[in-house]
Amino acid sequence: MEIHVISDGKQTVCELTKRIVMIHDEVDYIHIREKTKSVSEILEIVSILLNNGVPKSKLVINDRLDVALLHEIPNVHLPGHSFPIEKVRRMNPDLRIGRSVHSLQEAIECEKAGADYLLFGHVFPTNSKPNLAPRGVQQVAGICQSVRIPVIAIGGIIPNNIPKLSGMNLSGIAVMSYVIASDNPKNALQELRLSLVEVRNRENTV
């Protein structure tokens, strides 16, 4: 399964870029999700990452389509309040477009609209959404069975609960604070990767 690491908006430009440069070779995608930073700061983040060897193919720009196009980043992620998928696809047919969804109906609609992958959550309890009940693994499984595009689970994912996501044709997991806010991001990633490998090995022996 893929590992997506998403920035949480709590680090400075310097702190965030240092952490991403440190871990980029151990993840599949890095989402730049900086809701409180200015466009110039987000552009600076992307420039620093590219200048330090982070491949464009690994970067995903959240919501800021203008930043992605300016730096020719091939991946964008659209939150529910963002641009319509159809419009972005029509204007930029080569972009890889992801969409955040929170229900089966929304997932089906976004697939029909042309999304390349879906980010679904939050699956487990998470401090980032303390007043919202988790949607749970059954909803993830239902979406994986109902759409043909990749589904990425997000929300409260740690090594200990990754086994609960096995056996549902999930394409990957996405994490925020567990990695990006960790005192040791590389170690946190290694623990996630080890848990994913153990789950895959268990599935292959069934």
TrEMBL record:
Which keywords does UniProt give here? Thiamine biosynthesis
Q: Name one GO biological process term.
A: thiamine biosynthetic process
User: Pfam families of this UniProt entry?
Assistant: TMP-TENI
The family database entries (InterPro entries) matched by this protein are listed as:
Aldolase_TIM, ThiamineP_synth_sf, ThiamineP_synth_TenI
Q: Which residues cross the membrane?
A: none
Asked if the keyword Amino-acid biosynthesis belongs to this entry, the reply reads no
State the pathway, as annotated in the record.
Cofactor biosynthesis; thiamine diphosphate biosynthesis
Q: Which Gene3D superfamilies match?
A: Aldolase class I (3.20.20.70)
Protein name as annotated: Thiamine phosphate synthase/TenI domain-containing protein
Q: List, for all copies, the residue spans of the domain called Thiamine phosphate synthase/TenI.
A: 13-178
One MF annotation (Gene Ontology) recorded for this entry: thiamine-phosphate diphosphorylase activity
- Alphabetized SUPFAM superfamilies for the sequence: Thiamin phosphate synthase
Quote the cellular component terms of the Gene Ontology held in the record: cytoplasm
